[in-house]
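Researcher: Here's my situation. A collaborator sent me these components and asked whether they could plausibly form a single complex. I don't have experimental data yet, so a predicted model of the whole assembly would be a useful starting point for our discussion.
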Amino acid sequence: MDKIKVIEIKESVFKHNELNADSLRNSLKKRGVYLLNVMSSPGSGKTTTLIGLINLLKDKYRIGVMEADIDSEVDAIKIKENTGVESIQIHTGGMCHLTAAMTKEGLDGIDESKFDLVILENVGNLVCPAEFDTGAVKNIAILSVPEGDDKPLKYPLMFEVCSLVVINKIDVLPYFDFDIEKCKKYIHERNPKAEVIEISAKTKEGLDKLAAWMDNELKNYKGV
Amino acid sequence: MDKIKVIEIKESVFKHNELNADSLRNSLKKRGVYLLNVMSSPGSGKTTTLIGLINLLKDKYRIGVMEADIDSEVDAIKIKENTGVESIQIHTGGMCHLTAAMTKEGLDGIDESKFDLVILENVGNLVCPAEFDTGAVKNIAILSVPEGDDKPLKYPLMFEVCSLVVINKIDVLPYFDFDIEKCKKYIHERNPKAEVIEISAKTKEGLDKLAAWMDNELKNYKGV
């Protein structure tokens, strides 16, 4: 392997966000509202995955969705039209991630107390959202096959902060050099406790496993 | 279309970066060094595209590469092994983008004066890198087919600041719902002047057009 010169450039990007996140998490817990933070690259299939998941769970739980984006309402409209559940759009005004304070503002807007589960679809970005605790109970990451199996090496924090990694678009595995076992190995090097579920949101393969994971989470959270 | 509640959350993220960028751009211009800033989502094929491009131009121009990543040296090593050109890795220490000051630090590290063209592969991210002028002569964005044709709608700034959009992975068009004409329309709504080149870095289709664009840029820059 060639020797490569490496230049380290450090700069602090964290903004005393942790206290806000813990406070929000405690407040949600008291009211039995489960907040799920969903993160991924742009185009990994977050919205389509959520539509599939919500349609499997909406008869059992009261679900609300917050779609965070730099601009446009396309995702919030897509969720509402394809699931019927309440959905709002959060515009971040150029921000690449949500802080706990911004998440709280969104929750106030959707009136979260009437839901069992509020799903936050974070801004499509494998970097910044991982750095800011939103106050969610759990973080999940969606990684799609076309992005490549090496992403856990290059975006380590994302895979460290997520309890579950959903590998999406497994229907196109034949057309890409994506090694699922290698990818799982990289994920577990970053986070030995991470669960991994393989799905195709398009063909719906594996969505039942994702729904079972979510159902189990909600039961444990409510202490049922 | 359903009515969707939209919550605007504004926060400033810009850090008086413009002066630094202009100063760096002027300094590079005086020495005839062309800095190209390449941006995209994670997994869009930036590194593979650059390898193809460099191999078409390296006999004509002296080329250096700066690979920016949160962590890992995989990209810098890949460039060096597959093209033979000098390549360094810039670790951003968690930062999701490069500022002009960070870019200058990288250029000092590679000793940019000995090159005609220095290519900066920015952090894989469609949001933040677009907000920070690195001092480059031109920005280009790579958008890959699996990410979806709607990305210019959701990440408008990226497409506004780029002179050229490279649509990559056209070899997998048959397996995705990606409408190239619709995508071009969205790009041109954001940026009427943007050029669009379609390629497959994997099969090398279209790389000649990308090399011709770069060659033309370098000729104009040097006033040849």
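Model: Some features of this prediction you could bring to your collaborator: Chain B touches chain A through 63 residues (CB under 8 Å). DSSP finds eight helices and eight strands in chain B.
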